[in-house]
User: Fold MHD domain-containing protein from Drosophila ananassae.
Amino acid sequence: MIHSLFIVNNSGEVFLEKHWRSVVSRSVCEYFLDAQRAAPYDVPPVIATPHYYLITVQRDAVSLVAACKQEVPPLFVIEFLHRVVDTFQDYFGDCSETVIKDNYVVVYELLDEMLDNGFPLATESNILKELIKPPNILRTIANTVTGKSNVSTILPSGQLSAIPWRRSGVRYTNNEAYFDVIEEVDAIIDKSGSTVFAEIQGHIDCCIKLSGMPDLTLSFMNPRLFDDVSFHPCVRFKRWEAERLLSFIPPDGNFRLMSYHISSQSVVAIPIYIRHNFSIKTGEQGRLDLTIGPRNTLGRSVDKVKLELTMPRCVLNCLLTPNQGKYTFDSVTKTLSWDVGRIDVSKLPNIRGSVSITPGTTNIDANPSVNVQFQISQLAVSGLKVNRLDMYGEKYKPFKGVKYLTKAGKFQVRM
Assistant:
């Protein structure tokens, strides 16, 4: 399975390594770094080297590189690497280089428990927190003085049970269950505004703080929307196949209940549009005019809008006037960034002005593309809606809440 794990920062430095079955030299990461330099935003998840397979995951500002000697199911390793990052975020609140370096001891203890001789062992957050206490200032000081570690000497009660993801004896004063339905729109829009490609990657994140051993049932208004789904192990899959509802005994705390995919065969509503005009004539200055507006948002506001446009190499500078937000132009990478913020429907955001080019340029490739980022609160662009949440096995009435969020994934408009 996994022989070694390396964690690499944005500068290409390996700042943490852990070995299980054999010691692998960190020089093997050069193959990953070469691939990253060649395509920073499109690194292959599996890289074959003469002696190892490198399986990689990039999250936040760090990259996790697992070295495997034999062939293994890549998705199995990728899922485990994502689980490692999720565990670090759960324990430390973040998974940055600084946070990992500040908690080296706990990180190594976690990796020891999560993998046994290179095979996944304990990956559920509840079990890990019973085995290894999350760090705090008092515990750190006490461990330094006494020489003790965070690792418990008692086997967690849920480790050998039929429900390993939930610890026993959970008690809360306020019983709450919150669900976040988050959808990312991946789309390519052509020059005329027609949709070339569109799909939705969605997931439902939960924060469950319920006493005892509740048995929950979550139903949807339109469950036939899903083209593909994957579930947390707590979900009873046979019941989903038969009735199209989620029946589960939830873990305690935060977890991802399900992920789903809605492909372009379904109708994916594009929530924004861009009107653009970009022209460059040989030996003259060019003109740029961009306007962005909402579409199919059901009256919801579009927030955190940002546009990024990679100009042709012949462009020297941009002198633009936005009616909203701020713009920057990087003359080295030729990248124009426009931070719009919230779209005001009464006065649509617009940026226009002149573009100066290198004198004497004759061969001009003036067909850049715009990468768009945005967020829309309280809207699932697929039309997915939670119908109801029922609880069995406990007598109290919990507080329940559902939030929806749509945001841009890889959203590109061609000019």
In short: The first strand starts at residue 4 and ends at 9. The chain has three domains: 2-146, 176-268+379-414, 272-377.
